[in-house]
Amino acid sequence: MTDIRHDWTREEVLALLERPFNDLLFEAQRIHRQHFDPNRVQVSTLLSIKTGGCPEDCGYCSQSAHHRTDLERERLLEIDEVVRAAQAARDKGASRFCMGAAWRSPHDRDFEHIETMVREVKALGMETCMTLGMLRPEQAHRLKAAGLDYYNHNLDTSPEYYGEVVTTRTYQDRLDTLSYVRDAGIKVCCGGILGMGESEADRASLLQQLANLPAHPESVPINLLVQVEGTPLHGVEPLDPLDFVRTIAAARIMMPASWVRLSAGRTDMSDELQALCFLAGANSIFYGERLLTTDNPDADHDRALFARLGIDALQ
Ligand code: SAM
Ligand code: DTB
Ligand code: SF4
Question: What is the pTM of this model?
Fold first, then answer.
């Protein structure tokens, strides 16, 4: 078994990212097989429970009130709307339901409502995940008590590039919430976005941050930027797809026991590119036609892709 390390240096990560492609993928797949069944992929379905009007200024996001996008702002969904969406996702084969809100942080007045959502989705026999922005320690404890399995909170990019993308919060704010979530005993889902105009050194630095956290996030979403018209990052130079695959492979090598999620951006990827991502060690995806506010591949297409690749969805 490979060691679980928390002492990666920038040079080591850069050296990984720069290895000959075949060596890097071979090593990632070798390590993948020590920890996981290579032909099984976990599938989660997302739902935006509160859309748009967010006070944060994240340069990639359709939901920021700072940018002029086409998005309609919506109220917090009712419990029965969420439960119906979760049921539909479960019936289509998703085993985890991830609920996202366009908040800087949740208001205490909404908290009982949020707790009820967690309880009711759990009662359907699904795993639950939420992403609600920054939390205080007692809010993390309340979510744990309600039965929340995962909390998603991304570092998104390197500490060095962060200020180019978001100015309304700091990297340390993100790290603080991650520690409250971990300390409350909730599993951590934490990753980033590639293709935001960052350098290879930034990708190395993001991976170093993730792997050197006190515990590796149980789930590591690697998103490819979905370019949304009206956001500051619309029109940024696209990333070389092979560099996306390299980053997945390095994440697999550095966090060998974590679920690495091939996240946003799949509608811009060929089936063959996605197959390379699975070979590089990605073993979870978002499943269903919608991410939060943007499109995801059709469920039928994903089922056909899994069948072509001999992949089973994990139940
Ligand atoms: N407001 C909360 C927060 O930021 O933590 C939760 C929702 S936010 C939409 C969740 C994550 O979605 C972000 O951290 C970011 O990684 C990802 N995301 C948002 N817009 C994206 C885009 N256009 N392309 C790729 N990933 C995106
Ligand atoms: C994550 O890393 N990616 C998901 C989930 N965590 C919440 C969100 C992707 C959002 C893509 C853009 C949108 O649909 O608004
Ligand atoms: Fe708000 Fe989250 Fe979008 Fe940032 S990523 S603008 S915090 S919804």
Answer: 0.97
